[in-house]
Amino acid sequence: MRLPFSAALGAVLVLAACDSATFSPDNPNQNRNQGAAIGAASGAVLGALIKDDNRGDGALVGALVGGAVGAGIGYNLDQQEAELRRDLDSGVTITNTGDRLIVSFPQAILFASGSFTVRPGLNNDMAALANSLQRYPQSTIQIVGHTDSDGDAASNQQLSERRANAVADVLLNQGVPFNRVRTFGRGESQPIATNFTPEGKAQNRRVEIVILPNA
User: Fold this and answer.
1) Angle, alpha carbons 59-30-42 (nearest 5°)
2) pLDDT of 88-127, one tens digit each?
3) How far apart are CA 60 and CA 43, in angstroms?
4) Which member of 67, 182, 192, 194 has the greatest number of CB atoms within 10 A?
5) Which residues form the OmpA-like domain (predicted)?
6) How many angstroms from the chain centroid is the CA of residue 71?
């Protein structure tokens, strides 16, 4: 039996959203379930486009495949997040958005003021992060440097680039493949707190390692 595309897609979206517990903050599988729902909806649309002669069947097939892929990505992110929280310094912030992990190192534990040489005391954390990246190889790693607004904007941009590259060098030396790593400097352009207080400036001086799963 062939289903109309609208009926097939509607069924997929209803099934993805029907369990209110799926997105509960207390659900340990929240990101896995969210990934499955997003993957199912995306797969349904893609499947319908590819299987143009029978869009309803294509949507259902795409939903099944996309849901499985999305669930796998969400599960791996949950697992990797838990391991990183266990292994990294308590000053490191880890954010799981459901489609990526953002591991944020404050400048104070990474670098001396004005420096772009990674502190030797971070060797254990860098080794733990590198090991994690190698245990979960199906991802791209973006390393992004940020500064506060003190000083010249051009100098801050250069410093943020050098710090991102310095962290990348440490991870590469720990065995993370070169082709998985991208570095960026954002200077003072992306603050996460006010630059009018010392506490806010300290939050803005950071290096973020963004782990993006490959679909």
Assistant:
1) 20
2) 988 999 999 999 999 999 999 999 988 999 999 999 999 9
3) 8
4) 67
5) 98-215
6) 15
